[in-house]
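Weekly modeling sync, notes
Attendees: AB, CL, MP (scribe)

Item 1: holo prediction request
CL wants a bound-state model with oxa(dethia)-CoA before deciding which constructs to order. AB pointed out that an apo prediction alone won't tell us much about the pocket. Agreed to run with the ligand included and paste results into these notes for async review.

Input as submitted:
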Amino acid sequence: MSTGVLGGGKGARSLPSRPGVRLAGTGTAVPATRLTNADLEAIMETSDEWITQRTGIRARHVHKVELGETTSGLAIAAARSALSNAGMEGSEVDLVVVATMTPDSPTPTVSCGVASAIRTGHAAALDLNGACSGFVYGLNVAHDLMRAGSYRAALVIGADRITRHLDYSTRGRATSVLFGDGAGAVVLRATDDASKGIIAQAMHSDGEGSRHLFIPYTREDFPPEEEFEEHKINRVQMNGAAVFKFAVGTFSVLIERTLSKAGLSPEQVDHYVCHQSNARILEAARERFGIPGEKMPMNIDRYGNTVAASVPLAFDEIRRTGRVREGQKVMFLAFGAGLTWGSSLWQL
Ligand code: UT7
């Protein structure tokens, strides 16, 4: 345990009353084991053709606890990679936000483990469960705490190992083929340049749709109208068609309203980094707003839906190719169980 209950003199240098927030680094971690559509064909009644045509997914990564690929392990690896990319030490971080719906256990939180592993020295640490929207929610929360002047350097991480809640038999094929595990992180830093940071954001929920996507712990968690079967316990239950419809509508409304809040037209945004849930859902949004393919990255073919990790995994990938530059505008978008949805439009 590090000494000094209040940490090591962070925040000594004063910032403007509403500092800007800079995206200073990104990093990711995915499990070593890759599961292709052909691998799935060998264990359930499915086909590469069905999966590729309906979802765009060709492979995903699945964790092995014995390799240290826990939610915390993945989150820590992504955090280290993002810090190294930002050229920073863990001791400079004073806020750690981990978005996850699959912590290793109810307590301790994943964020406490990350804060300790990277040696922040008593940084604020909080886990946030917004399902697939969690990372975008986390970005907004961390940004606003920094904009208020409360924190100077934050790590926002999306980490999930959803595959522990999947049924890899034919009866679970409609959901198990969709998901994969991983973690993605960004480092945020306060800056004197107040023009940098979020220019428009949104966070919403609708509990009425909770039964479209849920994980029951016990028999009591099943709604009366839902047929109870023992094998469904602890496994993702999803009404795919309902979620698909919700997702297509939500992405459109989110893009439209976020642009309108910022007073921008679709072409003024340089990158739309969306939750990777289904290639067809992303294509629908892209076509509706006439967004060119290179502005809406897709890596679902290689990772599947990685829940809270999906947005930072996609962002890190384009950032490392050099396509993301200072002065650009980036919109992060996600929807997920809850139901939840959110956006975060950044001036870099
Ligand atoms: O983060 C949010 C997470 N969730 C989502 O984004 C999911 C959104 N929904 C979807 O992406 C789509 O609804 C799915 C990909 C899940 C399903 O696609 P669909 O075109 O809506 O297929 P469907 O559920 O209507 O199923 C069509 C057929 C069925 O067979 P029958 O009844 O027509 O004979 C299914 O049993 O496809 C069958 N099927 C499969 N066949 C081969 C379902 N899953 C599979 C599979 N392999 N893995």
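Recorded for review: The pocket of oxa(dethia)-CoA is lined by residues 46-47, 50-51, 54-55, 132, 173-174, 177, 238, 240-241, 243-244, 247, 277-278, 305, 336 (CB under 6 Å).
Action items: CL to compare against the apo run; MP to circulate these notes.
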